[in-house]
Every structure is written in C-alpha cells, then in structure tokens.
Design a protein that fits this description.
With 256 residues, the chain is of the alpha+beta class. The protein contains 6 helices and 12 strands. The strands form 2 sheets. It has a 6-stranded mixed sheet with strand order 3-4-2-1-12-11.
Length: 256
Amino acid sequence: MHALLLVALTLGHAPAVEPPRLRVVTYNILAGDRGLKGIIDTLTASKADLIGLQEVDRLTRRSGKANQPAKLAKALGMNVFYAPFFPWQGGEFGVALLSKHPIIKAKAVKVKGSRLSQLDAVVRTPSGDVHVIVVHFTVTFPFRDKKETDACDAARLAEAKTAYALATASDLPVLVMGDMNDDSGSPPYEVFTKSLQDSCDVKGGGLAKTWNSALPITRIDYIWASKQFTVQSCDTLTGQASDHLPVLAELSLAAP
C-alpha cells in the first residue's frame, strides 16, 4: 500500500524537463591581428553553440592570405557562413557566423547608406529554427570634422534600422549580435528596445564592458534576443586575443 502510494506520488510530481540552453557568443576578432590561436582558445573554452564574429578577413595580405572563417570553423568543428563587406588587400573583410547546428539558409544583406553588410541566417537548433543576424556597425572616430561624424552616426542608425527590420520580418525566435559601436541608450541602441531583450542588461545590469580588452570602459558589443528566449546569464569572457572582449549569453528556448 505504502509502496503504491509512493509510486503514485512520484509519478504525479515528476520534475519538469528544462529546455536545452543555447550558448551564444559575439566577438570582434580584430582581423586576427594578434593571431588566431588566442581566438580559437577563447572560443573553444566558451563551449558556444552559436558564434557571431566581426572584423573577419578572408585571403587578405595583412592576414597572410588566410581564410579566417574557414580556419576558425575547422578548428572549432563548426559550420560557417561568411558575409563580406567589401574587397580588401586582395581579399575580403566582413562578418561570420559559426554554428554547431546546421545553418539551413544564410545571406549577406546590403544596407543603404552604409559600406557594411549584415549576415542574415536561420539555424536549426534542438529547440527549433532560430533566426540569427550578425552585425558590425559603422564606427564614429573621435576628432573628425562634423560632416564626417554626422555621416558615420547616420550610417550606424541606418544599420540598426535594417537589422531590426530583418529581426522582425518573421515569427521565428531571433538573435541579433555584434559590435554596434555605440553605448546603451544611444539612438541605434534604442531601435532594438522596441521588442528585443539586451541580454547583458537583463542579466548583469549592463555592466559587461567590452572595449577595450586591456581596460574595458564601455559596452559596444551586444546580444539581443527576442521575447521567446529566457536569458539565463550574460557576461564578458576574459582574454587579450583582440581589442574587444567577447560576450557570452546563455539562453533557453522551449522546444516546439
């Protein structure tokens, strides 16, 4: 009798199964200027499922004609898609997506008013398809004249609006990640707050400074997630392999 009651109670109170988590990293790798080994070591230690990379060279002279996206993908055992911005030193300069899961479609998207493209992809994860956008926004350099500064600011806002339009174009859970070259509260930042979560604001209070890696004073690298995700954690990773610190967010998404 007691044994039967115990079995009944056990069956009636089976623990809930936690949905699988996605470990997502964004990292500006400075075109591998400090070597790829440190980048590979950092990303290996992150155990990431999805990695958005910015400032990625492919076959440029400054990078020794290395195919950086292919080399990183091989070293990490991940799938890769590369979205070039423009020709550079005999090769290309752009952004990349690395994924442990199949990348079922991907394309580079041009932005009107900018030289920088965006990577727009769908990844098939264990919890279902996820829309992934990797971005690198135009930087406004200090001590430039007002005309140049205004042009860079305008390009960055156009890039933010394009990325947000891509993010809201489908009903899939969406991630937007990258080096946005602007602080929280800026006009480009505010574009995303309409319907997306700033992961390191949700978990961490926005304290995860990312630039520069030697003495982090500002947060310009972000992982934005749609409301279908629950943000479990978000913080920077240590390392000097680039002038940026990578950001790692752990997210959960209920299985369909």
